[in-house]
Amino acid sequence: MSEKLVFRFDVSGNDFTSAGQASVQVKKNLRQLGFDNEIIRRVSIAMYEGEINMVIHAGGGVAEVHVCEEYIEIILDDHGPGIKDIEKAMQAGYSTASETIRSLGFGAGMGLPNMKKNSDEMKITSEVGVGTRIVMKINCKGTNE
Amino acid sequence: MTAEKFVESTGFKVVCMPNPERNISGAYIGDLLSWVMGRAESDNVWITIMSNSNIVAVATLADVGCILLAEGVTLDSEVVALAAEKGVNILSTDVSCYDAAIEVSKVI
Ligand SMILES: Nc1ncnc2c1ncn2[C@@H]1O[C@H](COP(=O)(O)OP(=O)(O)OP(=O)(O)O)[C@@H](O)[C@H]1O
Ligand SMILES: [Mg+2]
User: Fold this and answer.
1) 3-state SS track over chain B
2) Residue extents of the structural domains in chain A
3) How far, in Å, is the centroid of ligand 2 from the Cα of A111?
4) N or C, which end of chain A has less CB nearby within 10 Å?
């Protein structure tokens, strides 16, 4: 794989039950490309949490995954409400999820911490009323920590 | 051991088993999906009482060996069909999560 591959997904914001499809597809693609299982697992977890957040907190968005031999980059863009206090949102256990969403098993406030833990670099930019952009990079060579 | 062998040894009911050769080892109990994503390990038996379709994506992405529904929890047929399509093994039992975990630890 000498060229960089780009996968792009429109993530719908009105279907909680089939959420995660883009992440499942990316996992499948990475398997076919022959990536290491541990790398695939980290990408899967990081992307799923970000995808779900766009669905439940932002009414959907766009997910782009850039794949090359050295790294995998996940770029999530939404036009949701934005995150007022990013530091607070990053804390384990912090969640603004509604009762309905919690009844589906979301809302533990562990998504952003999982994204941080499973990526080598993570950058959140967000503006209230405008949207949120999250970029996560997972290096394919060398170690995580 | 394989998922198929695991079922034979425990007597758990099979809801769907699209991937009988799938390796199974260890277990994780949890219903909050982000905890499962963060803590379950590859090949684990994931013991839960959650029954909505999101469990299929979580099982796929966390790469667990099978889902074990405890407490007699049942699934809608669409969820079973989705799991079968995605290659996710699902078993069930009438006993509690705790008792299910005890059964699991007897065989793996
Ligand atoms: N894309 C987003 N747009 C707006 N707010 C967001 C977005 N992502 C996260 N948040 C805010 O950050 C909080 C923490 O997110 P996090 O993913 O850690 O937890 P959660 O989604 O509430 O629960 P869990 O991920 O455990 O199911 C959310 O409750 C929400 O308030
Ligand atoms: Mg979340």
Assistant:
1) CEHHHHHHHHCCEEEECCCCCCECCCEEECCCHHHHHHHCCCCCEEEECCCCCHHHHHHHHHCCCEEEECCCCCCCHHHHHHHHHHCCCEEECCCCHHHHHHHHHHHC
2) 5-139
3) 4
4) C
Mean pLDDT value of segment A56-73: 97
| pTM of the predicted model as reported, rounded to 2 decimal places | 0.95
In this predicted structure, what is the pLDDT of residue A18?
80
Domain that holds residue B47: 3-107
Which ligand ends up closest to the CA of A132? 1
Closest partner residue to A48 (CB to CB) among B42, B52, B61 is B61
**CATH label of the domain that carries residue B26:** 3.40.1390.20
Overall number of domains in chain B = 1
- Percentage of the residues of chain A whose pLDDT score is greater than 90: 91
| CATH topology (fold) of A5-139 | Heat Shock Protein 90 (3.30.565)
Tokens of A48: 């799923």
